[in-house]
Specification:
Order of helices and strands: HEEEEEEEEEEEEEEEEEEEEEEEEEEEE
Number of strands: 28
Number of domains: 4
Largest sheet: 12 strands, mixed
Radius of gyration: 26 Å
Oligomer: single chain
Length: about 450
């Protein structure tokens, strides 16, 4: 009997050990190798799950990601450390931790106790600072260096372009407050150049274009997530990631598999982060004469290429097959790494096969910068715009930065808007590459060539 009880006890212990081992996490040797990255939180999803952009890099947080807020809340503008591993789907966050601000090169000291989010009734103490813009993020949100000081712009920051665009070298005024040693910009305004020490009267506005910022595709939806549409989209044979900051427009019909859309995106560390998805007229996803019916158009920057065929070109992080039948036209400059191009392509056996690649003028890089007044705009951005009495044809890669009230051609507010435009001339036609609102500006029209 004792022997039997002993055997039973031993069996129970062995079973418990098996259960305990199953409950333990996988051994370190089975875990994917991780890496560490620190930076300012540029954007984050509404919850914890989704795409985070930290220090200019995109990381995907999923149900297994751990979060640590010992050094304060993980908000836009805060310093964070990411432990991540790399998969075919991009950089996957294993853990995201808040960090002291000085770990991201900012002023401040570690909080002795975990920081808390200020109560809505708390009124921050504001300060003013003027200086030349020394560096700025892609887009408006992120880290700005103005007059030797670093400021963080977040979703609550207001911007005023009355005195021209906020480019590197222009004069700016910042209204800000300090939180946990970080200067948070409440408002960033462009200022006359003379208002900055050593400044000279400002020339007409210029811009510092970033062609990669204008990566976009006109193609059909293969698959998309349900509303609110955050998650993985497949458009024209390519996967894109939509997050809480992605804008969605359905003026030309609802989202549906097979619908033609314009998708504007930013390639970030192997992830195509969607900035906007908008339904479009079906003709924009149709091929021209001699091309397959479904010929899609993509615009982006050459990352890698070779003039031998067959070969693979990588444009804004997306690969295309180039064959002897692909038309290569260096219409606006030579093919080179960094050149802005249009790619016409179709899908064959899961591959993106380029039918034509042509160098183009990136938005903001045309030879003419002009200040004027918007007289009328087309129902389609590719149509004819009239600005201060001059007609312009919308370039297919055009970037439009107008307030909501002026986005519709039918809106009474579409006319009369003060604008800054960039254009070039092709075959005697003024081609419009960029139109940007200049709210409340008072100036005499000027042209820079």
């Amino acid at each position: 009997m004792k022997r039997l009880l002993g055997l039973i006890a031993a069996g129970v212990l062995m079973l418990a050990a098996v259960v305990l081992m199953a409950a333990l996490p996988a051994q370190a040797k089975d875990d994917p190798p991780t890496q560490i990255h620190r930076g300012i939180i540029n954007s984050r999803p509404a919850g914890n799950i989704g795409t985070w952009v930290i220090g200019g890099r995109a990381f995907v947080a999923n149900a297994n990601t751990e979060f640590d807020t010992d050094e304060g809340p993980l908000v836009v503008g805060a310093c964070a450390k990411v432990r991540y591993f790399v998969t075919g789907g991009g950089d996957i966050a294993d853990e995201i931790d808040s960090e002291p601000p000085q770990d991201c090169g900012l002023s401040g000291s570690p909080s002795p106790t975990p920081s808390v989010t200020p109560t809505p009734s708390a009124t921050p103490v504001m300060a003013l600072h003027r200086g030349l813009v020394e560096s700025r993020p892609v887009g408006l949100l992120g880290e700005w260096t103005i007059g030797g000081l670093v400021f963080l712009a977040n979703n609550d920051t207001e911007f005023d372009f009355d005195e021209g665009p906020l480019t590197v070298g222009s004069c700016a005024k910042v209204r800000y407050f300090t939180s946990n040693g970080v200067r948070i910009a409440d408002e960033i305004d462009s200022e006359p150049q003379r208002d900055c020490a050593g400044g000279t009267p400002a020339p007409p506005p210029t811009i510092t274009p970033n062609p990669r910022e204008d990566s976009k595709v006109f193609a059909r939806i293969d698959a998309f997530p349900p509303a609110p549409y955050i998650g993985v989209w497949r458009i024209g044979g390519v996967e894109y990631q939509a997050n809480s900051r992605t804008e969605f427009e359905q003026e030309d019909g609802p989202f549906a598999v097979g619908a033609c859309v314009k998708a504007e995106f930013m390639p970030m560390n192997g992830v195509n982060v969607l900035e906007e998805v908008e339904t479009e007229d079906d003709r924009k996803c149709q091929g021209a004469a001699g091309e397959p019916v479904n010929t899609f158009k993509a615009y982006g920057v050459i990352d890698r290429f070779t003039m031998t065929v067959p070969s693979t070109w990588v444009i804004s992080g997306i690969s295309y097959t180039v064959s002897a039948s692909t038309k290569l036209e260096a219409e606006h400059g030579p093919f080179r790494v960094g050149a802005f191009v249009e790619v016409r392509y179709g899908l064959a056996n899961g591959e993106r096969v380029a039918t034509k690649i042509e160098t183009r003028v990136a938005p903001g890089t045309g030879s003419n910068n002009t200040l004027g007044t918007l007289d009328s705009r087309p129902s389609d951005d590719w149509g004819v715009w009239v600005i201060s009495g001059v007609s312009y044809q919308g370039d297919p890669a055009i970037r439009v930065e107008l307030p909501r009230a002026a986005l519709s051609a039918a809106s009474p507010n579409a006319a009369g808007q003060k604008v800054f435009i960039n254009s070039y001339v092709a075959n005697g036609v003024n081609m419009l590459t960029l139109i940007r609102a200049m709210p409340h500006s008072v100036y005499m029209p000027a042209v820079v060539r």
